[in-house]
């Protein structure tokens, strides 16, 4: 597959992933652009990977995690959330929930990425662990903590 074909086939998926992890459409576009630029630089290597799309998603996730480590980074989703693609996505209703976005914004960057990769990208613990450079048991414990935080936020929202 040539790079241009990859971008046509998977570019919007990268923007959706960027949107889901960051909560901000402009940041999602930036993350997709960063991932595509890095993939383009080493396209021969990316193309030969077992799963080129997984490789590029890993680049995007690492770019997001790197971005969150910078002192100037602040998590502030835009006031109005625009879906990243005009074609209806079955997960859009869930992902665009204001309560969900507020709760996700309270998670650490790693917790948020683990949940997005597991539940939105449907990746297994081993693949997520490989992407993040951690053990599968760390993926499971991170997901467990993040889900507990989301449950707690949901309960406090319903009690109020």
From TrEMBL:
Pfam families membership: Sigma70_r2, Sigma70_r4_2
This protein's record includes keyword Transcription: yes
GO MF terms held by the record: DNA binding; sigma factor activity
Top-level taxon: Bacteria
Coiled-coil ranges (or none): none
Key word Transcription regulation present: yes
GO biological process: DNA-templated transcription initiation
Keywords on record: DNA-binding, Sigma factor, Transcription, Transcription regulation
CDD domains: Sigma70_r4
Domain RNA polymerase sigma factor 70 region 4 type: 98-150
Gene3D superfamilies xref list: 1.10.1740.10, Winged helix-like DNA-binding domain superfamily/Winged helix DNA-binding domain
Record domain RNA polymerase sigma-70 region: where: 10-72
UniProt cross-references to InterPro entries, sorted A to Z: RNA_pol_sigma-70-like, RNA_pol_sigma-70_dom, RNA_pol_sigma-E_actinobac, RNA_pol_sigma70_r2, RNA_pol_sigma70_r4_t2, RNA_pol_sigma_r2, RNA_pol_sigma_r3/r4-like, WH-like_DNA-bd_sf
Recorded family membership: Belongs to the sigma-70 factor family. ECF subfamily.
Name of the molecule in the record: RNA polymerase sigma-70 factor (Sigma-E family)
Protein species of origin: Kribbella antiqua
Organism taxonomic ancestry: Bacteria, Bacillati, Actinomycetota, Actinomycetes, Propionibacteriales
């Amino acid at each position: 597959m040539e790079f241009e074909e990859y971008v046509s086939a998977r570019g919007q998926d990268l923007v959706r992933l960027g949107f889901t992890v960051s909560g901000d459409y402009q940041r999602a576009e930036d993350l997709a652009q960063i991932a595509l630029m890095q993939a383009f630089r080493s396209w021969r290597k990316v193309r030969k990977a077992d799963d080129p799309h997984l490789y590029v998603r890993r680049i995007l996730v690492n770019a997001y995690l790197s971005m969150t480590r910078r002192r100037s980074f602040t998590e502030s989703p835009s006031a109005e959330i625009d879906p990243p693609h005009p074609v209806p996505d079955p997960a859009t209703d869930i992902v665009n929930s204001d309560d969900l976005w507020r709760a996700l914004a309270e998670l650490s960057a790693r917790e948020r990425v683990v949940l997005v990769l597991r539940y939105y990208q449907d990746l297994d613990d081993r693949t997520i662990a490989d992407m993040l450079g951690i053990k599968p048991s760390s993926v499971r414990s991170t997901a467990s903590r993040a889900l507990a935080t989301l449950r707690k936020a949901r309960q406090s929202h319903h009690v109020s």
